[in-house]
Amino acid sequence: MIDNMLKLARINIQKLKPYQSARRIGGEHGDIWLNANESPISVLFKLKKKSFNRYPECQPLNLISAYANYSNLCNDQILVTRGADEGIELLIKAFCEPGKDAIIYCPPTYDMYRINAKIYGVEVKEVPTIKNSWQLDILNIKLNLDKVKLIYICNPNNPTGNVVFKKDLLFLLKITLGTALIIIDEAYIEFFPQESMSFYLKDYPNLIILRTLSKAFALAGIRCGFTLARKDVIDILNKVISPYPIPVPVSDIAIQALEKDAIKTMKSRVSDLNANRTWLVNKLKKISCVKKIFDSSANYILVQFFMFEKVFCTLWEQGIIVRNQSDKINLNQCLRISIGTRMECERLIEEIQFFSKKFHF
């Protein structure tokens, strides 16, 4: 009977391998979580709203105004979503015809672009980035534009940490004008704000930007994100978003996080994490089991290790949880390490140093 019920699911869903989030594969194990690119420091807010018997606004005006002020955009250029993840899904839902249209995504990168397309029965064209530099393979993207409606680009890219050349993004925007949308996922942009593409929204109607409060704002637990685009695109997305996507407590806390003093605190926290990243990289360079460290402009680093599986398991056994990326294209022997507090980074270095000495590297 169970098998028969499972067969009722759509064929593509039966075959789908779901995204393995940090919590799905890491559970509650560990003392130091360096596997989900979260902020290691929590931010405390008190709810100002006290009654929850009424449905919330579909798009809370005060929250939109607060983010418009932060991003120097107009209210009608912003859609509030359940994390940036909902924005990824809504764009496919609104713009792609199943069985007809396609998306391009450029691995190694965030897998939810690909998985959402597969869920909706939309073709996925994989155009891997150039190995080790992780820059876009512009020529192959240009050769694969047939049927493509959406091109997803994470910048800074997850899990490699690099910033994509702005000239390449502008080139893509020009050659796809009128035929496809370029979606720039700026989940980590606060760690390198000068690379944001938001300034170009006024020039390119096919530019979409995804943002979140999960990373630099230290609010992964409330699931609040934003889609930034021209008004006509926002109007289309408003047609397919669910009726009440943003709970009152989420809106309440998000508005507080976008107040002037809270933004100042966020920027200070980002500065500290960037300093911790530099410290961690410099320490790792001196450890012999470390094969290569890739440059990063985000709150994580990608590191290639000798005996990477043993490094991963040893850290896990010591309660330090990092993310194994070795199954992704061109990331053999690589672990992604989120930047923690200085104390957490010191503990990580101690364990890797001990491992390196134990196995005589």
From TrEMBL:
<feature type="modified residue" description="N6-(pyridoxal phosphate)lysine">
    <location>
        <position position="215"/>
    </location>
</feature>
<protein>
    <recommendedName>
        <fullName>Histidinol-phosphate aminotransferase</fullName>
        <ecNumber>2.6.1.9</ecNumber>
    </recommendedName>
</protein>
<dbReference type="InterPro" id="IPR001917">
    <property type="entry name" value="Aminotrans_II_pyridoxalP_BS"/>
</dbReference>
<dbReference type="Pfam" id="PF00155">
    <property type="entry name" value="Aminotran_1_2"/>
</dbReference>
<dbReference type="GO" id="GO:0000105">
    <property type="term" value="P:L-histidine biosynthetic process"/>
</dbReference>
<keyword id="KW-0032">Aminotransferase</keyword>
<feature type="domain" description="Aminotransferase class I/classII large">
    <location>
        <begin position="46"/>
        <end position="352"/>
    </location>
</feature>
<keyword id="KW-0028">Amino-acid biosynthesis</keyword>
<dbReference type="GO" id="GO:0030170">
    <property type="term" value="F:pyridoxal phosphate binding"/>
</dbReference>
<keyword id="KW-0663">Pyridoxal phosphate</keyword>
<comment type="pathway">
    <text>Amino-acid biosynthesis; L-histidine biosynthesis; L-histidine from 5-phospho-alpha-D-ribose 1-diphosphate: step 7/9.</text>
</comment>
<dbReference type="InterPro" id="IPR005861">
    <property type="entry name" value="HisP_aminotrans"/>
</dbReference>
<dbReference type="InterPro" id="IPR015424">
    <property type="entry name" value="PyrdxlP-dep_Trfase"/>
</dbReference>
<dbReference type="InterPro" id="IPR004839">
    <property type="entry name" value="Aminotransferase_I/II_large"/>
</dbReference>
<dbReference type="InterPro" id="IPR015422">
    <property type="entry name" value="PyrdxlP-dep_Trfase_small"/>
</dbReference>
<keyword id="KW-0368">Histidine biosynthesis</keyword>
<comment type="subunit">
    <text>Homodimer.</text>
</comment>
<dbReference type="GO" id="GO:0004400">
    <property type="term" value="F:histidinol-phosphate transaminase activity"/>
</dbReference>
<comment type="similarity">
    <text>Belongs to the class-II pyridoxal-phosphate-dependent aminotransferase family. Histidinol-phosphate aminotransferase subfamily.</text>
</comment>
<dbReference type="InterPro" id="IPR015421">
    <property type="entry name" value="PyrdxlP-dep_Trfase_major"/>
</dbReference>
<keyword id="KW-0808">Transferase</keyword>
